[in-house]
Design a protein that fits this description.
Strand content: 25-35%
Keywords: 2Fe-2S, Disulfide bond, Iron, Iron-sulfur, Metal-binding
Oligomer: single chain
Bound molecules: FE2/S2 (inorganic) cluster
Shape: globular
CATH class of one domain: Mainly Beta
GO molecular function, one term: 2 iron, 2 sulfur cluster binding
CATH topology of one domain: Rieske Iron-sulfur Protein
Structural class: alpha+beta
Protein name: FAD-dependent oxidoreductase
Number of strands: 26
Pfam family, one: Rieske
């Protein structure tokens, strides 16, 4: 079968299309961002009778939500031991409870609405093949015991991952995220909500009401705004640019000679690998991911998708490689998401971000916390996820490391230049070079046409770098990404890269 360069979830294009906003409108709550957080929040609000408008700058679910591996689990890598050392036992327990409740809420919504979305209970398993990580996993299991998490230690697995030790979290789940979200979108409309696509929010004005301004000069007047864009498009004075860092990961779906033995796996050794399955149209697909790297720090000698293919061929009996895609995620200073009111000055603006790749349950936690805040209801998790929190340890250390990296990229990026000359660029690739003292990026398309761009990121001025796997210009500072012709794809940047004239 021919390889498809899009996520398996987009097969069949099941999400309906919505119009662009072409006038000024009024509502009670505007939700900006049509991924799983925005859709779930709009769904919960609409069900409570709140008048809600949901907008997305592209098509619903086309950003990170559409590029997930869709594991619904409270097992978020090795995290509980770390949370117990940095925070209190109660806070670590609250994190687990909030994520487990999120799984239950998703299951309830699926049952209540009889949604056919391939929902299946599965155990979640972390594994390692090295001694250093074995110790870390043993400590993680001690944390499971202390927090009463239903788990088990394993020394053998039914899949052929090289491994010495593993730990299981029982009764987690997986699903088809777009089939699930389509049903929520139908319910939003059914309950009087409005949805607009290709409608990019640009700014929020704060007067008697909130006014969400769009790039096309239209306004949505409302009482409260939920920012559910993966990186908040509006930062206020919350400084998310200094408090999160972006990373990319890659995923594929293939068929195997072996029947899938069940379970959802995460190999914690570098490079990490993730595995689950999906039965679709009578075919059993293995969804396999990993090869993470910081955004904008793509290593040209690694070729992440090729590495995944080699691993799958060697260990997982790959037969047919069918879909491949990639995703972007953000991590906060203390690894807990930021969910809640932006700050004291802007309490009518609410935000959810920084899920550290675990968006399925975190989005439900966020949707419930934000809905309860909007409805003035109590919620036990508001303090845990409050976006304005600051822990001296680990926030300070991570703050310094994140911002040292940004400063380094700001300076070194300007000095960087490829060894190759523009003439040597192969079709479908790019280099950076100097032209009259200015750093420019040159992409050669498959017809041999050259596209020259100013490689200064339009967000805060870092230098973008070329990602040859995805044919994009990626910014290492806060994760803005641009297509090979400079069009903004994702991240905090709102403007395209500037085109420049290339003089041979
Ligand atoms: Fe912030 Fe590029 S400078 S994303």
């Amino acid at each position: 079968m021919k390889q498809k360069h899009f996520p398996i979830w987009q097969e069949g294009d099941i999400m309906p299309a919505f119009p662009q906003l072409k006038e000024n409108i009024k509502t009670e709550v505007t939700v900006v961002g049509g991924g799983i957080t925005g859709i779930t929040t709009a769904y919960l609000l609409a069900k409570k009778g709140v008048k809600v408008v949901l907008i997305d700058r592209g098509k619903l679910t086309n950003a990170t939500t559409g590029h997930t591996t869709a594991k619904i689990t409270a097992q978020h890598g090795i995290i509980y031991h770390e949370f117990m050392s940095h925070f209190s036992h109660e806070e670590a327990a609250l994190y687990y409870e909030s994520q487990s409740e999120a799984l239950k809420s998703i299951r309830n919504i699926i049952q209540e609405n009889q949604i056919e979305c391939h929902f299946e209970e599965q155990d979640a398993i972390l594994l390692t093949n090295n001694d250093k990580n074995r110790r870390k996993l043993e400590q993680e299991f001690e944390a499971y015991t202390a927090l009463n998490i239903d788990g088990e230690e394993l020394t053998q697995l039914p899949v052929a991952f090289p491994m010495k030790y593993a730990i299981k979290m029982k009764n987690q789940a997986q699903f088809h995220p777009i089939s699930y979200l389509k049903s929520l979108v139908d319910e939003i409309i059914e309950n009087g909500g409005e949805i607009y696509e290709n409608t990019s929010a640009y700014d929020i004005e704060n007067a008697d009401h909130r006014i969400v301004r769009t790039k096309d000069q239209h306004s949505i007047i409302c009482d409260q705004v939920v920012i559910a864009t993966q990186f908040p498009f509006f930062e206020g004075e919350a400084f998310y640019s200094a408090r999160m860092y972006p990373s990319r990961s890659y995923a594929v779906a293939f068929t195997s000679k072996n029947p899938y033995p069940g379970g959802m796996y995460l190999d914690v050794d570098e490079p990490v690998h993730s595995l689950r399955t999906l039965k679709l149209d009578g075919e059993e697909y293995w969804i396999f991911g990993g090869q993470n790297h910081k955004t904008g720090q793509y290593k040209h000698d690694v070729a992440p998708l090729q590495k995944l293919k080699e691993f799958a061929s060697k260990h997982l009996k790959l037969t047919d490689w069918q879909y491949e895609w990639s995703a972007q995620d953000y991590t906060t200073l203390d690894k807990l998401p930021y969910i809640g009111r932006l700050n004291k000055n802007r309490p009518e603006i609410l935000v959810a971000t920084g899920y550290r790749k675990w968006g399925m349950t975190n989005s439900m936690v966020a949707a419930k916390v934000l809905t309860d805040l909007i409805l003035n209801k109590e919620n036990p998790y508001i303090d845990l996820y409050r976006p304005t929190r600051f822990h001296a340890d680990p926030d300070l250390k991570q703050f310094i490391s994140t911002n040292t990296n940004v400063a380094k990229e700001l300076v070194s990026g300007k000095l960087m230049q490829d060894k190759h000359t523009p003439k040597e660029i192969p079709a479908g690739s790019a280099i950076k070079t100097k032209q009259h003292g200015q750093t420019i990026g040159i992409y050669k398309d498959h017809e041999g046409k050259v596209h020259a761009l100013d490689t200064t990121c339009t967000h805060l001025g870092c230098e973008v770098t070329w990602n040859d796997e995805e044919k994009t210009w990626d910014c290492p500072c806060h994760g803005s990404r641009f297509a090979c012709d400079g069009k903004v794809i994702e991240g905090p940047a709102l403007e395209d890269l500037k085109k420049v004239e290339y003089r041979k």
